[in-house]
Amino acid sequence: MREIVDILREWRRHAGQPLALATLVRVSGSSYRHPGARILICADGTTAGSLSGGCLEDEVIRRGYDVLRTGVPATMTFDTRLLFGCNGVIEILVELVRPGLFDAMARAMARRETCLVATIFKGRIERRGSRILFEGEEKPPDAFVQNLKPPIQLIIFGDGPDSAPLCALARVLGWHVIEVDDLEECSAKLDDRTAVIIKSHNFGKDFVALHHLLPIGLPYVGLLGARKRRDQLLYMLQEEGILVQSDFFAPAGLDLRAETPEEIALSIISEIQAVFGGGTVGSLRESRSSRHQQSLNSISVRQTTHA
Known about the structure:
Layout: H1 2-13, E1 19-29, E2 38-42, E3 47-49, H2 57-70, E4 74-79, H3 80-83, E5 88-96, H4 101-110, E6 115-120, E7 129-133, E8 143-148, E9 153-157, H5 163-172, E10 176-180, E11 194-198, H6 203-213, E12 220-223, H7 227-239, E13 248-249, H8 261-277, H9 291-298, E14 301-304
Parallel strand pairs: 9-10, 9-11, 11-12, 12-13
Antiparallel strand pairs: 1-2, 1-5, 2-3, 4-5, 6-7, 6-8, 8-14
């Protein structure tokens, strides 16, 4: 998601200028990135996003300059089995950004709404490119269609030395971070892309926060503190008749043997990423399938192609 945040930032900085967009539209075998990865290419040499681990970008950027000059979209195919570190074949469409594309994406992100982005990469040249699919609109053939979700929203309730590294790590990932003193007065929309960390270190405040959050059904509510304290809070909430509908993580964080505020923040952010990314939280060394194939299996997209 950081990729889309960066791309939209550069789009705003280069308002009114022609821009090229390269989109990874299809993968056969394994790939460092999955379909939907993008890189924005500006005429002044500025870029945002990525398509690989760094092995393809230079060539794609050069093609992007050609597209900026001619306005004609181009399809690129890379067989990574021959020269690069992955074991697959990937296709990339490089196009001149159509008017309105980023405006619609930015509006959807601001409203925390999902939008469908269709990238047509086959057929007539004049049809190729990316555009927003609106509700009820039929998905075009010969297109990669991505369900583009808003960034993860991290709400932090409570202060302390671990707040700064929590905020810093979350922002590096492109998450939207909100620090609050009173959750009931928080105006943010609590949706299925929201994670909440409760870290007031005050039993009464934590009780009130959990009383408010646990019935909502959020995908991640994390609590800092000992297990005994967690059990006491849950017992009192049960006595109040509160149903736990949200996924509750207490103590919050992965078992990284974390001790310092920075290490604790890393364990919590990693756990949240695993929840929203569908990760197994196991070591990649122990996995029977490659990380790249796991990414391809887990992505929520619809892709149709016609020879």
